[in-house]
Amino acid sequence: MSPAVDGVPVSRNVYADHNATTPVRPEVVAAMAPFLGEDYGNASSVHAPGRRAAAAVDDARDQVAALIGARPADVVFTSGGTESDNTALCGVADALRGKGRHLVTTTVEHKAVLDPAKYLERVHGYEVTRLPVDARGRIDPERFAAALTPSTVLASVMFANNEIGNLYPVAELAEAARRAGVLFHTDAVQAIGKVPVDVDALGVDLLSVSGHKLNGPKGVGALFVRKGVPFEPLLHGGGQERGRRCGTYNTPGIAGFGKAAELAARELPEAAPRLAALRDRVEARALAALDGVWVNGDREARLPNTLHLGFQGLEGETLLMSLDLRGVAVSSGSACSAGSLDPSHVLLACGQDKERARCTLRISFGHGSTEDDADRVAQAIVEEVTRLRALA
Ligand code: PLP
Fold first, then answer.
1. How many Å lie between the centroid of ligand 1 and the Cα of residue 45?
2. What is the sign, positive or negative, of the torsion defined by CA atoms of 133, 137, 142, 148?
3. CA 377, 380, 381, 387: dihedral to nearest 10 degrees?
4. Could you report how far apart the first and last alpha carbons of the chain are, in Å?
5. Chain segment 359-378, per-residue pLDDT in tens
6. Beta partners for 104?
7. Judging by beta carbons within 10 Å of its beta carbon (0-12, 13-18, 19+), is residue 289 exposed, middle or buried?
8. In terms of Cα–Cα distance, which of 75, 366, 67, 62 is closest to 196?
9. Which of 242, 264, 286 delimits the end of a domain?
10. Does residue 155 register a pLDDT over 90?
11. CA–CA separation, 392 vs 231, rounded Å?
């Protein structure tokens, strides 16, 4: 007999919250292990242990660069997506102070972009244009182009939205920015490993990535900075990363990130359709079995692994907790704002009222997710929504 919590049977656990973070793959742990053990040298030291660490950093730089089609020299290792986004916004703003004090971004960015923009506005007197989205979370490229002015120093539009999964037309927007003489940054933290990302095909000047969203370790990421793009570093110190990001190299983290990037690049062609099939399986079952369910975001252009559902008359957090009791881990929105019951800024930006924005679930699959997981998630959602509605 399966164990029970509060009378609810507990089945095998299912993790469907890969947009929050992902399990570290065994190959990644193996790539990190030497640098947590016998190869503890500082990658900036000239002796043999240091040179071994430096070689691991070089290999990882090649692997991350290959995943995004960049020159290795244009990859700057950071402590993660948040630092990469902050460096892009504040670093370019600082370097181009003489040009102007205007930034263009959107209302649906991750807080790692929205908050440095707010900081620049509050502390340094920048003007920030935050482009609105339509009901499906899409931005209007013409409106984007019209927002660029001679004093715009940077435009930042995410590649893929972490909550609703929307994919944004980055190549088209970067081209408009280029024509206007404005640098373009994209937060590709949720895109890498799920859809192809190539910095040259996209024509972007800066691009943020993070290790823990693609089965790498937490606390490591990278910022692509195209050669010649002016930016001031956020951290000053020992001159690492050619002065672009100082601080002793996180060798184990960087080695793990490199391995994760290599695996993601190799497996992407197979992974994307497989994940989309899992997403569609849950979506079809939920829509067929329940009334009062809707899909948030842009179903024509979204991440293959992400499904964002709304449920009439339910509180997302209550549903999340009932699913958790059954061993099904999903999210009621963005993990980074978990702990607060405020409705998601992304759904509010889509014009949803607070009531509607509160009863949502984000289901996100990843490496290791199976059809059986998708079926368990779908069944648990259908049963719990039905049970909670009957109680109400
Ligand atoms: N940008 C996006 C779109 C994200 O989803 C996240 C993490 O949730 C971040 C930035 C922050 O990345 P990190 O957790 O590596 O700081």
1. 31
2. positive
3. 180
4. 29
5. 899 999 999 999 999 999 99
6. 129, 155
7. middle
8. 67
9. 264
10. yes
11. 55
| pLDDT tens per residue, range 185-225 | 999 999 999 999 999 999 999 999 999 999 999 999 999 99
Residue 36 lies in a domain: yes
Residue 2 within a domain: no
* pLDDT single digits (tens) 12-63: 799 999 999 999 999 999 999 999 999 999 999 999 999 999 999 999 999 9
Both 90 and 232 in a single domain?
yes
Does residue 211 have its Cβ closer than 6 Å to ligand 1? no
Most informative mutation of 21, 22, 82, 83 for ligand 1 (most atoms within 8 A of CB): 82
Q: What is the pLDDT of residues 234-263, one digit of tens each?
A: 999 999 999 999 999 999 999 999 999 999
- Total domains in the fold of the chain: 2
Residue positions annotated with a catalytic role: 336
Cα separation values, 155 from 199, 208, 232, 379, Å: 16, 14, 17, 42
Q: Is the pTM of this model over 0.90?
A: yes
Domain CATH code at residue 309: 3.90.1150.10
Of 212, 247, 264, at which residue does a domain stop? 264
Q: Does 210 sit in the ligand 1 pocket, CB within 6 Å? A: yes
Q: Please state, in angstroms and rounded to a whole number, the distance separating the CA atoms of residues 361 and 388.
A: 15
CB 37 within 8 A of CB 56: no
- Give the residue among 295, 279, 281, 290 at the shortest CA–CA distance from 388: 290
- Ordered alpha helix ranges (H), 26-157: 26-36, 48-68, 81-95, 111-124, 141-147
Query: For the chain, what percent of residues have pLDDT higher than 90?
Result: 91
Q: Which domain holds residue 115?
A: 26-264
